[in-house]
Predict the structure.
Amino acid sequence: MEQKNVVVIGAGVAGLTTALLLSKIPGYKIVVAAKHMPGDYDIEYASPWAGANYSRLQSVSIRGTPAAEWDKLTWTVLEDLARNHPDTGVHFQECEIQSHAKDVGTTTAKWFAELLSTNPWFKDVVPSFRSLPQDRLHPDFDSATAFTSFCINTAIYLPWLVSQCLRHGVIFCRAVFAHILDAASPSFHPSGRVDLVVNCTGIMASKLGGVENKTVVPARGQIVLVRNDAGKMLDVSGTDDGDGEACYVMTRAAGGGIILGGSYQLGNWGSQPDPNLAIRIMKRAVKMCPQLTGGRGIEHLDIIRHGVGLQPVRTKGVKIEKERIGNIAVVHNYGAGGAGYQSSYGCAQAAVDLVEEVLGVRHKL
């Protein structure tokens, strides 16, 4: 059987998960080529900045859609990692979603649409989903739900994915591509031949030559990482501070700190933290979660760093498709927006299935 050679562009959660699943199939030799690798912090590289958690955001993920099935598959994998593999930096965390009726129609409420529902499609996937009784609600809120979720320490999880890829023979190299066909150059594969390219470039799919998908736009998310203890994950349907601003708190595993967010600023490429937005983020978080500071002000937050990431939002949801560009077969897996981690295994498996359609290694064993 002839070996099939694949280059995966991108080393975010999409690229690494796709490379890992593909590398487990005998007959493939995988190279991950990327400008940024785990350990880097750059505005183009969204994965390190993510919370990251499982709480379905984009409303395109509804019952019966491929996106819902991708999320279900991912839940199964993440549940196993949380239970049996603490070295991944994935842990269970109770999540509470609080909702204001007045937020309906705002940017944040649309972003959180499925999450805010009292009857979401994922209620039968996550453990202990329930609506909270009225006497449990803060006077400012009209409804709330709770369930068991995950939170992922990306500083541990991304290197873990790399380590698993290395165990399966994946090769990593740094590369900057002006055009997707550059990744098909024989110089990027030890065999001297590339049979297929997997495009997991995230937000840069909007600029990569040969792709240049203008339906992919950044959703600028700003966060504050602190050392204070929150105890659980909290999300709110909106804020009074701006249409594109959000309020959430989540605790990363293994001492990874507490993420305070945030913002959802569509079309904004700004790379530097906005100090005024940071203050609003901290004030909202302390008000929603007083245990962060013991009921005191934001000056009692112990800040690790401020961060900005660009979620790769595609108008029609994640793009998982195959095509031929020039003389090379290409499979795309990008545009998951804020759902990159919670749909990662489902999306990666869908991309791997397309690679198999094109190259068919598994079917020739």
